Amino acid sequence: MTPQAHAVQPVAEDELSQVVHGQHGNPHGVLGPHPHDGGVTVRVLKPLASSVEVRWDGGAVALTHEHEGIWVGVLPLPDVPDYRVAASYGADPIVLDDSYRFLPTLGEMDLHLINEGRHEQLWEVLGAHVRHYPGALEPVTGTSFAVWAPSARAVRIKADFNSWDGREHPMRQLGSSGVWELFVPGVRGGTAYKYVILGPDGEWREKADPMAAWAEKPADTASKIFESAYEWGDDAWLAERAKGSPVNGPMSIYEMHLASWKKHHDGRFWSWAELADELPAYVAGLGFTHVELMPVMQHPFGGSWGYHVTSYFAPDSRFGDPDGFRLLVDRLHQAGVGVILDWVPGHFATDEWALARFDGTPLYEDPNPQRGWHKEWGSHIFNFGRREVRNFLYANAVYWLQEFHADGLRVDGVASMLYLDYAREDGEWSPNIHGGHENLEAVQFLQEMNATVYKRIPGIATIAEESTSWPGVTRPTSADGLGFGFKWNMGWMHDSLDYLAHEPVHRAYHHGEMTFSLVYAFSENFVLPLSHDEVVHGKGSLLRKMPGDRWQQLANLRAYLAFMWAHPGKQLLFMGCELGQESEWAESRELDWWLLEHPEHRGVSDLVRDLNAAYVGSPAVWSRDNDPSGFQWIDANDAGRNVFSFIRRGSVDSPDVVCVSNFASVPHDDYRVGLPADGEWEEILNTDAEAYAGSGVGNFGSVTAVAGDWSGQPAHATIVVPPLATVWLRRR
């Protein structure tokens, strides 16, 4: 070898050993190019190579093996050139770019915001990102990797591109941020990878990327690099969405578990593309304004329905790649249907390859077992007291709304987050600093999350599944509320289902279960949920909750749905309920679509379609959902006849709608009902119509009201109220 004109920059042997064994916090300080003594010293780590050479435009230098797979040489140049490394393994040399010649891909401002817990677009700097750079030899395409692991002693990448041998790709720690980073040229989308993390206990752990945009299909557990090429077509939808607020608009939600809505005959899931071809037309055809998707974030166990998440930033790979999910959302928007995603920030899966003890310490989970372990669900609880963890979560909320154009998030298990004693006995929890049982850090997180997403994405909605009487769930954060747009009305759901479970002859004694919700109906912005939780685990289908023979069950269901659609609050119906599903839901099989071949089940589906049309077309039913003056009982006390009658008040441009529900098994032929005005009132909906497989009892399309006080109203009409039925009347 020709003697070198410049000396090699010396590095102590023990430091070289640290690099070789993956225990060096800054391998870039040893590896890569380093100007020294008028030349450029280059070190590369190629443990299995037989020879290594550095090439640049106009020259080449053979490197010398220095220590346990580290090769070194000096380029006779004053400045670092654009060079490549040619490594031989017994055959023709493999020419690669050098990861250790690149500057960090995170800037000082990024690191500052991460330290402060205020990086609202965290996914843009952490995780794996394909990047493109110009170069003197040729343009450079590669992938930057960045992961937050503040207690790690070292981090490596093992992946497809290094034959799953992480020794060649140790990462560098960026200051005191806890972030480890490496740019690997030549690596593109589709590549699988994991981080190998050396914890403070000296143990190496293989971990999926917490910020991965894609993941392998279960049961494989690696993360995958993804570079989106999707071009959206929903600009008109987003522009219109930004002008309004869901709280003041119509919202009728179809809740779905995508994997069991429809399946292939061999049990395979439909792909995102297959769902995009069929789901938008189905949901729009039924007149729903929104779908709510049970968690689409990557989860390893299908039986968890997505509520035990392992990759918070990755759509479920069982259906395809992330752009496939973008296609589904886009198609739904183009069909006029909004998309709400179930989101689970309260707890996470225990799988050892995911978030649990990520850097060898309780990093994402609360280290206090009284706060960090969820007894009821057997999962870890996030450390809401750590600002970086709160940042991870609320940035994740922004991510789904911004990157995937979601229109809202339904936040799972809010009550479990708010209370330190949730699902805990005495002695299993400790009070907060004020001696109370409120989880003050979780409250802070929820307020930060809501304030951030409403600031960044106009027109979206957050919805709390909150089952207690926590005050101000939908009050603005500026008024010390939690800041949600809506709250699930669990009290209405339980009370009304309890009432409907009784035989009609006994319902008079439970009349208050249907009227009590109006005592608090305007204390929050409510969604009325008939969700998946009510039709699973032995609870039976919604149809089978109803008493009586099959005709009576179907009639009860139809009457109940029309009562619900007229009640203050937005409504949510779980898939299958629109078919009058006989059996309870099971995620292992698709819905009983064959039921639609039967007129009585087709009738339920047609009723839901007509309910949604009447609802959207009658602003009185939704425009004043949060205004007590928009609702008035006509008669809340007719327990003897099992009848409820009320008015939804409209405006000059949206006439009042009157709802009369009869939950008795007999008709009331001469039922006098008070009405807000005299004149002709159109019967816009009758759940007993023959078109819905009812008995056909009704009012021939309209009734005429005459002046004269009745039930506190200035006019009245004598109407026919069918058995187990609800009618809607609207003044012409």
**Percent of residues in helices:** 10-25%
Largest sheet: 8 strands, parallel, barrel
Q: Could you give the count of β-strands?
A: 37
Give the mean pLDDT. 96
List low-confidence stretches. none
Key terms:
single chain, 732 residues, alpha+beta, eight-stranded parallel barrel, eight-stranded antiparallel beta sheet, 15 helices, 37 strands, elongated, GlgB
Give your account of this protein's structure.
This protein has 732 residues and is an alpha+beta fold. The protein has an eight-stranded parallel beta barrel. Strands 30-31-32-37-34-35-36-33 form an eight-stranded antiparallel sheet. A hairpin with a 4-residue loop joins strand 23 (373-374) and strand 24. Helix 8 (387-403) packs parallel to helix 10 (440-456). The longest helix is centred in the last third of the chain and has 18 residues, at 599-616. The termini are far apart. 50% of the residues are buried.
List the helices and strands and how they pair.
Elements: H1 13-20, E1 32-36, E2 39-45, E3 51-56, E4 59-62, E5 64-67, E6 70-75, E7 83-88, E8 94-96, H2 108-116, E9 127-133, E10 140-148, E11 154-159, E12 172-173, E13 179-185, E14 192-198, E15 204-207, E16 214-215, E17 223-224, H3 235-243, E18 252-256, H4 258-261, H5 272-285, E19 290-293, E20 297-298, E21 311-315, H6 322-334, E22 338-343, H7 369-372, E23 373-374, E24 379-380, H8 387-403, E25 408-411, H9 414-418, H10 440-456, E26 461-464, E27 486-488, H11 490-501, H12 512-515, H13 517-520, E28 526-530, H14 550-566, E29 570-574, H15 599-616, E30 631-638, E31 643-648, E32 657-662, E33 668-675, E34 679-686, E35 702-710, E36 713-721, E37 725-731
Parallel strand pairs: 18-19, 18-29, 19-22, 22-25, 25-26, 26-27, 27-28, 28-29
Antiparallel strand pairs: 1-2, 2-6, 3-4, 3-7, 5-6, 7-8, 9-10, 10-13, 11-14, 12-13, 14-15, 14-17, 16-17, 20-21, 23-24, 30-31, 31-32, 32-37, 33-36, 34-35, 34-37, 35-36
Helix pairs in contact: 5-6, 8-10, 14-15
